[in-house]
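JOB MANIFEST
job_type = single_chain_structure
chain_count = 1
residues = 513
[input]
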Amino acid sequence: MQLPRSSGVLCHISSLPSRFGIGDLGPAAHAFADFLAATEQRYWQVLPIGPVGFGASPYASPSTFAGNPAFISPELLVHDGLLSKADLKGLPGLPQHRVDFQRAHALKEKLLRTAFRAFNNGHAPRLREPFSEYCAEETTWLEPYALYTALKHAHDHAAWTDWEPAFAQREDDALRTFRASHGQEMRYHKFNQFLFDRQWRTLRAYCHKQEVQIFGDLPIYVAHDSADVWSNRELFYLDDEGHATVVAGVPPDYFSATGQRWGNPLYRWDRLQATDYEWWVRRLASVLQRMDVIRLDHFRAFAGYWEIPSHEPTAENGRWVNGPGANFFETVRDRLGDLPIVAEDLGIITDDVTELMAQFDLPGMVVLQFAFGGGTDSNFLPHNYQKNVVAYTGTHDNDTLLGWWGDANNTRDAEEEAAARAYATAYLDLDDPDSPTTWPFIRGVMRSSANLALFPVQDLLQLGTEARMNTPGNSGDNWAWRMKPGALTDAVAERLRRQTRLFGRGTSTDPFI
């Protein structure tokens, strides 16, 4: 896939302003699409949009197919006739600069339950037929998801391996009885997915009208405590009780002496191959109904992955195992056509990974923050960028530019740090290295040969570490940053639009219009 010369902004849905404690698909999302169009950005990158799991992480979702109900806009439900304006009065005041996930989810749950009761009582009758059609079309994943979610609610949100054995083992009689007594609860969860899908499609169509494409993110692995694993146990390495026998992660490296033990169950690629990767085909088809381009996270695992025995507390004692390789992508391409995939190829990448990317013409990634620790031949320096890559100032896993620049607690020693800063100062022509702005960094990526340049919205707003989205390996206060209302001023928009035009990434060929 060859991306056009263009640029875009990374901003997750949860980070948008709203009255309800968390960003959603309502007015602020449409206003953000307007901002992108006005600044001639072609891409809006988001993180995974499913329900969040442990630590509120979008990368540990209870379903790879579902949308996050917390992203449903109550204001749009008023327009649909499922909520009244009175329902949105007297709401608790929630923080604007951070997501308090527990309180925000509780508020959205209350409003969604109200909307569901209204629907059951005959409100918004025009939605009845579309809801029935949606349930019929999506039944393959929607039925087990609704059943799993209702069971999880009935078990006080315990992991499925801690349910009664009959439910954990999916015994037909037990599930049949549960469906009969919890049909309305399952219908509620299906209705939420219908509302999410309806609002997402509206937002995506609005973006397309503005010539903005949505750039999504697909984790390679799924959470163990998920509808995906519970309803497809045969596709994962699990013991008789459903516990993972081996788990995912990465081995020790320069950044971590013990590696990273993620804990996701590993795929039985032999069994997936025997079905022509049917589950993965459905997964990719589903995400491509919502996204125009997808970043495939931890791409290197398709060539080879690090397998860790589940009893090991760290990632040190693992082994490399061959992934499905070209056979997977050939099969998927035969079923779905050429895939608009960007390979997340950061970290230690071996020849088999680069060969796999080249075979299927998949762009990789480069990050400016990684550029200044070595010599002039670093692949992360803008003058070395290949055309068919996506270039970032930083990603959701990095600190913001200003936070990174001001961080004294780094992995290099003082002499290495001083040398790196001196090189970055000269390379980017920083006027004041003691108090830099982000725009020389953005300009460095913009003027490169990379076809697509992407910037976290925090860097456009020149925010520090307080606006960091995620710190890998730290299960603390991640994913919570939010953009304040009015943060994207006319001055920010004009500067971004000017940079975009100067370096041939906008819709106009005249940089001075």
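[summary]
The chain has a mean pLDDT of 95.
Residues 183-209 form the longest helix (27 residues).
exit_status = 0
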